[in-house]
Structures are given as structure tokens and as C-alpha cells.
């Protein structure tokens, strides 16, 4: 049993944001029918590291648990097939530019007329309204427009990519999950579906803690701080004697008392030195220098051990090679191996872990159109001869 057994989702999106929402829903049991253009498919099939099966590693991992159906939505017969699929769908996901679905004849009003219970997730760069609604955009643009990229980098350097160029896509996909699950809950009371409208930039902006109220109240414009954190210190990355890096998170005064003891200099946390947070912030460079000197005199593992013994949050900065060897990752199964069209493939496992209805990877990304015949026969009662005609005409 899965938590979302019986929920049917049509994934009309491309690349990552909308489709990632479908991926998560599929991990927990929803039936995902991925609609792709005949002969072309989702651009995600060619985004990332190419493999011998013709699709990328990104596709194999992120198209997990989806049935691939090809459909030409510019052909009236393709549109009719989509209408029949919508008639039995709980959720329709799209992430075209605003107006594209309407041009196909599948805006929310049309979908609502076909099936009043269907929920429509609409993902775009800037949302379905506003002066920027028609502009194209990807995650990198969302990071810039949201204010995140401005904060990423060293104080005297240019703005940089904040870790992953796809962060906004994945966060928007997760907010999409929140939106459609909330809409499903509302449908239990109202009996009808609704639109979930998401902009890539909004999901990133929502995660920037006090950035907005600090500017509104005090006119404070946060600048790039490298690995530091604006409101607390020491709260950064420090290099150990063996070249390894350690992340130390010292977020309040009591924690700094413990860190000072771990450093062998408890007087650092006295009221007349750096005990109060305000004093540490005022002397940020000096405090960081003291911590850097201490960390730089020990190995990475020794620093972490002393911090852990003192109950100071600290951990190693990992590369993916480090991650593959870490016992915590191994114990939790955070990376799992699933069969794919290129053989066993290591991919991120399903999260979160549910005790009674856990998620599952049933298969990885399928070949383009591999489920078209079965979906048309099982769900829409098309005969083999009808399917053959549709294929010959390029509709599927």
C-alpha cells in the first residue's frame, strides 16, 4: 500500500520543476502518465550526462515511476485523447509559458469543464499573472531574480551559482507537491479542483529568511558573505590542517561557551570578550580568525570529534566521493541502486520515510513512448488497429 494509490496524474511538463512534482507523487503511489511529443520527448532526456540508452542520467533518475506516452497536441486526435485522459485524472501538471495550454485548448476552464475534480498545477518562470508572466526563464534566472544569486559568493567577488543551477526547479517541484496535496484535501470538502499557480522565483524567495522584513524595517541590504551567516558567528567553513573542511554552526551564546571550551580557551566566551552575540558580530573577523587558527592546527576528524564531544554542531564538507563512503548515508539508504536501461544505477532514494506507507522506486526513466499502447488500450479502449493508424499518422 502506498499513500497516494489511486491518484492519477498527467505530467505534461518538461525539464525539471513540474515533472519533479510528478516524480515525488509517483514515489508515493500515484499513477503518473508522462505526455511527450512523438519522436522528440521531454528535453530532460537530453539534459545531463548522456548514456548508451539514448537518455541522460538525469532522465533515468528523475523520470522514475512514470509511464511514457507520446501525443501530438497540435493534432485534433491527440487533443481528443488528452481530453479522455483528463476525464479520469486527479491532477494535471504543466510548466509551459502562460497561454500555451490555452492555445492547445486546455486552460483550466476547459479542463474544469471536462472534469470538475481535476487539480491543475501551473509552473512558470514568473507565474500566471503580472508584467513578467510571458517572459521565459529557467532556474538560473530565478536564482538571480529572487535575490539568492546576489548573496552567493565572496564579499569582494562576483555573484556565483548557489551550488546547483537546478535548485529553483527542485524547490518549485516540492512546493508543487504541497500545493496539489493541499488542493486534494480541499477537494474532499468542496468536491472540485482548483489551480495551483507557482513561479520559479517565488519558491526561492520564500526561503530567504528575514531578507524582506530586514529591508522593510531597517533598509538593510544583505551583501555577499562567502560562507558566513549574517546574524551569528562563528557560523562558517574552516579548513583543517590536513586540508579537509569543517562546517561549524554556533548559533547562540551557550553554544559559543561550549565551542570555547572545545578550543581550550573558555575565557573567549566571557562577557567582556566574545560571550554576547553582539560582541561576536562586532568582532566577526577576529572571532573567525581565532576559530580558523584552532581548526587549522588539527585534522578535520579531530576538530569534528572535539566539537561533537562538546555538543557543538559540526560536520565535514563532502564531495560526492565522500558521500558514497559515509556510513550514515549507507545506513539510511540515502543512495539506492535501481535497475535501469543501462544496468544498475545509483540514484537518490525516496524521501521522506513514512513508517506505514513508504514510497518506492518501481522503475527508472523509460524509453520514449514505451507505454503508449498499453495506456491507450487499458485506459481508453483503443484497438490495436486504431493505435496503428494513430502511429502511422504521427499522432503518437
From TrEMBL:
SUPFAM superfamilies: CoA-transferase family III (CaiB/BaiF)
Pfam families according to UniProt: CoA_transf_3
UniProt enzyme class: transferase
Presence of the UniProt keyword Transferase in the record: yes
Keyword Cytoplasm attributed: no
Xref: InterPro entries: CoA-transferase_III_domain, CoA-Trfase_fam_III, CoA-Trfase_III_dom3_sf, CoA-Trfase_III_dom_1_sf
EC number per UniProt: 2.8.3.-
Keywords: Transferase
GO MF annotation list: transferase activity
Family annotation (PANTHER family): SUCCINATE--HYDROXYMETHYLGLUTARATE COA-TRANSFERASE
Protein name: CoA transferase
